[in-house]
Write a structure and sequence with these properties.
This protein is α/β, with parallel strands linked by helices. It folds into two domains: 72 residues, Glutaredoxin (3-Layer(aba) Sandwich); 150 residues, Glutathione S-transferase Yfyf (Class Pi), Chain A, domain 2. Helices cover 55% and strands 6% of the residues. Keywords: Membrane, Mitochondrion, Mitochondrion outer membrane, Protein transport, Transport. Its main location: mitochondrion.
């Protein structure tokens, strides 16, 4: 792929009418962590009122120069969620530009919280929790490839995820310790949201899109155990926030029901 964007770059050219967002097959292949990321970016782009087409590919992960999904083709290729948000912001479509410095600092801090807890918890549960790995992850991850390639790719991906989890201490945790971290994270989010519609003012920001992507995916992904979703459902204002964004930005999307 040519013209790959990895870093921030100011770009004043208009948003194209043929932007494409690439992600894995949604019904039979995509896993919880990738689905959360893809839904985050879909929602962020919708909040910015930008046109784009979702392109489903069984090899989307391997098409991506960074090996992560989603990735955006918008003239150049923009890889990974944070880079996509920065790219869109640099084109003048920012949902948080009017926040004061204190709120901008809080937004960064809470984004770090979600990325350091929910993201790693999703990876742990998907790739390290035995029942989920055997019943969900293995059959879905390799579904787009013939045997033995599907087995090889799944094995390599699991090793990659474990390597990612170890420096952050997640790999050595028990499942109950992971659930406890998720509960603490949700309590922080619930306290921050309080009785407000959105986390930082009367209008949504990219953080609302981020939380929605993770919460909606956790609530709607079938797993052998419902403990993960039950923890999130224990915070009614977080669930209501998720439902509010779904109704606002996916009013006629039957696939989200």
């Amino acid at each position: 792929m040519n013209d790959i964007i990895w870093n921030d770059r100011t770009d004043e050219t208009p948003w194209p009418n043929n932007a494409q967002l690439f992600q894995p097959l949604e019904l039979e292949q995509i896993l919880l962590p990738d689905n959360a990321n893809c839904l985050y970016i879909q929602t962020f782009l919708r909040m910015c009122d930008l046109d784009f087409e979702i392109i489903y590919r069984s090899n989307a992960e391997f098409m991506s120069p960074s090996g992560k999904v989603p990735f955006l083709k918008c003239g150049p290729y923009i890889c990974e969620a944070d880079a996509i948000v920065n790219f869109v912001n640099n084109k003048g479509y920012s949902l948080s530009k009017d926040l004061d410095p204190s709120n901008k600092a809080d937004l960064r801090a809470f984004t770090s919280l979600v990325n350091s807890v929910l993201v790693f918890a999703e990876l742990y549960i998907t790739w390290c929790e035995p029942s989920v790995y055997n019943e969900v992850t293995r059959p879905r991850y390799g579904s787009g490839y013939p045997w033995p390639l599907n087995t090889v790719l799944t094995y390599k991906k699991r090793k990659q995820v474990i390597k990612m989890l170890k420096p952050h201490g997640f790999y050595d945790m028990s499942i109950n310790e992971v659930y406890k971290k998720v509960e603490t994270c949700c309590q922080c989010l619930s306290t921050k949201l309080d009785n407000n519609n959105y986390f930082f003012g009367e209008q949504p920001t990219e953080f609302d899109a981020l939380v929605f992507g993770h919460v909606y995916t956790i609530l709607t992904t079938p797993l052998p155990t419902n403990k993960f979703s039950a923890i999130v459902r224990g915070f009614p204002n977080i669930v209501a926030h998720c439902e509010r964004i779904e109704k606002t930005y996916y009013p006629s999307d039957k696939s989200r029901k």
